[in-house]
Write a structure and sequence with these properties.
By secondary structure, the protein is an alpha/beta fold. Among the domains are: 272 residues, Rossmann fold (3-Layer(aba) Sandwich), CATH 3.40.50.300; 39 residues, no CATH class. Helix content is 42%, strand content 12%. The strands form 5 sheets. Strands 2-1-13-10-9-3-8-7-4-6-5 form an 11-stranded mixed sheet. A two-stranded antiparallel ribbon has the order 11-12. A hairpin with a 5-residue loop joins strand 16 and strand 17. The protein is elongated and about 125 Å long. It starts with 10 loop residues before the first strand and ends in an 11-residue tail after the last strand.
Length: 695
């Protein structure tokens, strides 16, 4: 029978003063404990002993407590100190007890108003553990998965991976979804994912959740549809929940994950107390050792809101750098009582503002074992910093461990064989032929692939063919017949790569009309308006480049053919006329032969650009020659040497502009005409370089 005492005026003792050999024992009042207590110090400084003394006082005083121990040693010691009148109140949660797993389903009986809080809390736990591999897509898909499962009674965390791999199970869950946004995700968005994209999107979730659930230590706990422990009932009935999360027995990640989910469940159970008057809410004390392992983003919310729900926290860890900035600010800003054992230099600098000017960082660094500096909450006000010595163990060993474990198993554990049988039944593998199921799954997968066939045109034969594989665009595609023909052509030397037609667009998949438009491709229609394929912007650009390349190749072929025909007929390939300079009138310009009329259009496009370049170069060089002529004196005999020239002597008029018609004078019989450069137009041979020489 629980002892009656004055709870509001109760003092929990944990230290004694050491000022001037005082040695006066002191503690903290109930109302001041509602503002939480923070303990920090190096390992071996005395934190665990302080926590044990406070826990055992709460147990003896009849309070409800939860102690989360990531090492397991403290919880196992506490089991030996349980008084006889509280044996029935102990709930021992030990995941390492494989034969008697406790049922803890975080998705069990969650009220509608708290579903998003449960999902958010689980996401915070997952994010903290897989922080280096976390992504926005992973959070988005996993969040919608948890919310969908919360709407279906009987769901467990095992349903997460099954939602991605079992279409029938996924359909049954979707039918129960009440949240329209979550339902829209599964019906409209996820269903539109291509098989490849869906596989890539959920791979990270399946990998991490699968690792967690593949361990029978964890699976047998979270896979039980009905939780065997009710955290809300434990809080209201003031029971004792001892959680042994020994990292050495269940693994560090499993310890952090279970601890994070359990603390999140305690927070939600406390918030559910909103349905009762504040005066009826009984204080519940949550002790968390090495709490940095479980300090998620939601943990900061517990510190700021838990007081009104009578959830009082006592948290301890080794050094401040273990906490994220958000959690650190929440702790230092919300805790009422701060107790500091010996810490390192960085923490001493961090805590200097809390304890100055009475204590310096050097004082904090050099604290002896069991010595503390603290700021104690007294009647709602923080005291000035002072030093103290923690109390030695104050409770007596009752030898109750074996009895407590046996009684807790009877009330809160299930038989391992029954749990595993339930998991097998849930998966649908009960009394099933495994080989037959594997064959059916394989046939089903093959059938799904066979239903979706894609049409292509063979790049060699031009014939259509269908295969159940979607090939990459922008490369030649061959049917089996086309492959054989290409091999034969390469073998006998008749292979022409220009014969390969690159089809950059696949046609609409047969039996997969639902895929049309779900991958962002543009519809391609024929002249009748029927959709014959799809393409994206990149494939359109590739088509244009391919068309230009094909046009260039065709032009080269035509030009080569035209040159060959002109060579056989004796006609020149092209002619270029250079503007003539003044020359004797009796010299006639030969007629320039032109290409055959039927070849002129083909040749024109090739030589046109060359003619323009040659014309511009010729004009530039002629301009330079005119400048040099102006500087030279006249060498002809009769005329003055002063450079003045008579228009009656056109033979000396070498400065006549080229754009004017030159005046031609017939030379006298005894005068030999000057030798002029041969500027007659002549044919240009194929591949010949044309240059302009100096006179």
């Amino acid at each position: 029978m629980a002892r009656i005492h004055d709870h509001e005026n109760e003092i929990t003792y944990f230290a004694k003063t050491n000022f001037r050999q005082g040695g006066q024992k002191f503690g903290i009042k109930t109302d001041d404990r509602r503002r939480h207590m923070y303990i920090v110090g190096k390992t071996g400084a005395g934190k665990t002993t302080l926590l044990e003394n406070m826990v055992l006082q709460d147990i003896y005083n009849g309070h409800g407590i939860c102690y989360v121990d990531p090492h397991g040693d403290t919880v196992e010691r506490i089991l030996d100190f349980i008084p006889s009148w509280r044996l029935n109140d102990v709930v021992y949660f030990n995941p390492a007890d494989l034969d008697f797993p406790v049922g803890f389903n975080v998705l069990d009986e969650v009220s509608g108003s708290h579903k998003h809080l449960v999902a958010s809390g689980l996401m915070s736990v997952f994010k903290k553990i897989w922080e280096n591999m976390w992504s926005a897509r992973m959070e988005y898909i996993l969040g919608n998965t948890i919310l969908a499962l919360l709407d279906t009674p009987g769901s467990t965390l095992l349903g997460i991976n099954r939602m991605y791999s079992d279409p029938d199970y996924r359909r049954s869950i979707i039918e129960n979804i009440k949240d329209p946004v979550v339902k829209q995700f599964w019906v409209m968005e996820y269903a539109a994912y291509s098989e490849k994209f869906a596989t890539e999107a959920v791979a990270a979730v399946q990998n991490k959740v699968g690792q967690f659930l593949s361990s029978d230590v964890i699976r047998n706990i979270v896979a039980q549809v009905k939780s065997t422990i009710d955290v809300r009932e434990i809080m209201d009935s003031q029971k004792i929940l001892l959680v042994n999360l020994s990292k050495g027995r269940i693994g560090e990640d499993n310890s952090r994950l279970l601890g994070g989910m359990l603390i999140n469940k305690v927070q939600l159970a406390a918030m559910e107390r909103v349905d009762m008057p504040e005066k009826d809410r009984k204080d519940f004390y949550l002790y968390v050792d090495e709490f940095q392992n479980f300090a998620t983003e939601s943990f900061a919310g517990i510190l700021s809101e838990a007081r009104k729900y009578r959830l009082n926290l006592i948290v301890a860890h080794q050094y401040i750098a273990q906490l994220t900035e958000e959690v650190r600010d929440a702790v230092l800003g919300n805790v009422g009582t701060m107790t500091v054992f010996r810490v390192g230099a960085p923490d001493a600098q961090e805590l200097e503002t809390e304890f100055m000017p009475r204590f310096t960082p050097e004082d904090i660094i050099n604290l002896p074992k069991y010595q503390v500096y603290l700021k104690l909450m007294i009647d709602g006000m923080a005291s000035p910093p002072f030093s103290a010595t923690t109390l030695p163990p104050i409770a007596q060993n009752t030898g109750s461990e074996a009895k407590v474990i046996r009684m807790s198993r009877e009330r809160y554990s299930a038989d391992r064989s029954e749990v595993e049988a339930g998991v097998i039944k849930w998966t649908g593998l009960e009394d099933a032929d495994i080989d037959q199921l594997m064959d059916q799954a394989k046939a089903k997968g093959s059938g799904n692939q066979a239903k979706v066939k894609h049409k292509y045109k063979c790049s060699w034969t031009g014939k259509e063919f269908s295969i159940p594989v979607k090939l990459d665009r922008g490369r030649p595609i061959y049917s089996e017949e086309g492959k054989e023909m290409v091999r034969a052509a390469k073998k006998d030397g008749t292979y022409d790569p220009r014969k390969d037609i690159i089809y950059s667009d696949t046609l609409e998949p047969i039996g997969s009309v639902a895929e049309l438009g779900t991958d962002g491709l543009w519809a391609v229609r024929n002249e009748e308006g029927d959709i014959i394929g799809r393409k994206d912007e990149d494939s359109t650009k590739r088509d244009r480049r391919a068309a230009k390349e094909t046009e260039k190749q065709e032009l080269e072929v035509k030009l080569a053919k035209a040159r060959e025909e002109m060579k056989e007929s004796g006609a020149p390939a092209a002619s270029v006329e250079v503007a003539p300079t003044p020359k004797p009138a009796n010299v006639e310009s030969p007629k320039v032969e032109r290409p055959a009329p039927r070849l002129q259009e083909e040749v024109k496009s090739v030589v046109g650009a060359s003619l323009n370049v040659l014309k511009q170069e010729g004009e530039r060089r002629e301009g330079e020659k005119r400048k040099r002529r102006r500087k030279k004196p006249t060498q002809d005999g009769g005329g003055d040497r002063g450079g003045s020239r008579s228009r009656s002597n056109p033979s000396r008029s070498t400065d006549t502009p080229r754009d004017q018609q030159p005046v031609i004078r017939q030379p006298a019989a005894d005068v030999q005409p000057k030798t002029e450069p041969d500027t007659k137009a002549r044919p240009i041979k194929p591949g010949e370089m044309i240059t302009f020489g100096e006179e």
